[in-house]
């Protein structure tokens, strides 16, 4: 089998998955079919010899096609598509469309209200489990910004009283974390963190922490484990202020009336499972911050 036939066969093997991704992003079976056809044209012209994970690579291709279509749709406003009554069939070896069908038309209405970047970040991460390191380049954002976009979209999808209760619980948890950090209460910090909590810091955060070793958290590009994350923040968040960031609880460091750093919390099952420290100006500009 020559290379072109091999690639066509592999593409067909992944066609159901690609249509599922496109349908969930676009909300239209006909547009999903158009996106898959465009993805095949791009794939057939690409050099795939060094691609190790073809399914993952094809997912990024279809995602880029879809975000282009979504941006084009936003550029010429129209009524939301709403649920497509002729959704592609879920029959066959791939069953990703079962996800879309189970979620139902209500989600589609909410998705139509999201920005293209929010929609793509949410769909790729929450429905198809792509990491933000992959999603970021697709939507031309950093992984941290992509994570925030997905989080913002997730809150809008949940919405209502449940969303308000969750936001309130998150604020209490973040406030307790900041208080424990200021007090240097290591035991309390560990209790607020998931056992496998992860602290991530961008390049500017690392450089700044190195310049001010007595005041800033002890940082590495990635710190894993509740004890190590707690130790990094023990007694070191005295200047941090509670804030609402992209609609959820967070904290910021302000100097000269400007936000110089943002602390982005990922909260799961009532514990802090992730904390991203962001100082890069371009990433800070992507955040919606309200200082409390």
Main sheet record: 7 strands, mixed
- Molecular shape: elongated
CATH level-two architecture of the largest domain: Up-down Bundle
What name is given to the CATH topology of the largest domain?
A: Butyryl-CoA Dehydrogenase, subunit A, domain 3
Round the Cα radius of gyration to an integer and report it.
21 Å
Word description of this protein:
- The protein is built from 14 helices and seven strands.
- With 292 residues, the protein is α+β, with helices and mostly antiparallel strands.
- The chain has two domains: 3-158, Butyryl-CoA Dehydrogenase, subunit A, domain 3 (Up-down Bundle), CATH 1.20.140; 161-291, Roll (Nuclear Transport Factor 2, Chain: A).
- The chain has a seven-stranded mixed beta sheet with strand order 2-1-6-5-4-3-7.
- A hairpin with a 2-residue loop joins strand 5 (258-268) and strand 6 (271-278).
- Helix 8 packs across helix 9 and helix 11 (186-192) crosses helix 13 (226-233).
- The radius of gyration is 21 Å and the shape is elongated.
- Mean pLDDT is 82; it is low at 79-103.
């Amino acid at each position: 089998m020559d290379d072109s036939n091999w690639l066509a066969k592999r593409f067909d093997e992944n066609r159901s998955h690609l249509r599922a991704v496109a349908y969930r992003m676009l909300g239209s079976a006909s547009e999903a079919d158009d996106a898959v056809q465009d993805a095949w044209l791009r794939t057939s012209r690409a050099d795939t010899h060094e691609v190790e994970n073809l399914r993952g690579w094809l997912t990024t291709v279809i995602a880029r096609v879809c975000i282009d279509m979504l941006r084009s749709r936003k550029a010429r406003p129209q009524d939301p598509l709403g649920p497509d009554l002729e959704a592609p069939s879920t029959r066959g070896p791939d069953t990703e469309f079962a996800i879309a069908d189970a979620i139902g038309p209500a989600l589609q209405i909410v998705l139509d209200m999201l920005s293209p970047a929010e929609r793509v970040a949410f769909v790729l991460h929450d429905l198809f489990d792509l990491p933000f390191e992959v999603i970021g380049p697709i939507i031309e954002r950093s992984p941290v910004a992509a994570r925030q976009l997905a989080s913002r979209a997730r809150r809008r999808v949940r919405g209502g009283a449940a969303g308000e209760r969750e936001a309130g619980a998150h604020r209490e948890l973040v406030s307790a974390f900041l208080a424990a950090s200021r007090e240097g209460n290591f035991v309390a910090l560990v209790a607020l963190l998931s056992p496998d909590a992860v602290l991530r810091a961008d390049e500017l955060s690392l450089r700044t922490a190195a310049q001010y070793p007595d005041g800033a958290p002890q940082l590495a590009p990635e710190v894993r484990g509740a004890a190590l994350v707690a130790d990094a923040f023990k007694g070191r968040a005295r200047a941090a202020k509670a804030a609402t960031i992209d609609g959820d609880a967070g904290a910021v460091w302000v100097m000269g009336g400007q936000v110089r750093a943002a602390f982005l919390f990922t909260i799961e099952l009532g514990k802090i499972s992730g904390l991203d420290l962001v100082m890069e100006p371009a990433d800070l500009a992507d955040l919606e911050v309200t200082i409390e």
